[in-house]
Amino acid sequence: MRPIHLMNSEYDGGTPSTSERYETHRARHIPWQFSLLALALLLTVTLVGCGSSGATAQSPQSQATPTTTASTAPPVTYVAIGASDALGVGASDPATQGYVPRIIARLPKGSAALNVGVSGILLHDAVQQELPQAIAFHPTLITVWLVGNDFRQCTPLTQYAADLNTLLTQLQTQTHAKVFVADTPDMSLLPYFAQEHGAGGGACVAGASAAQIHAMAQQWNAVMDPIILSHGAVLVDLYHSDLAAHPEYVSNDGFHPSSLGYEQLANYFWAAITTHHAVPNS
Question: Which residues have CB under 8 Å from 139's CB, separation 6+?
Answer without folding.
Answer: 77, 78, 79, 114, 175, 177
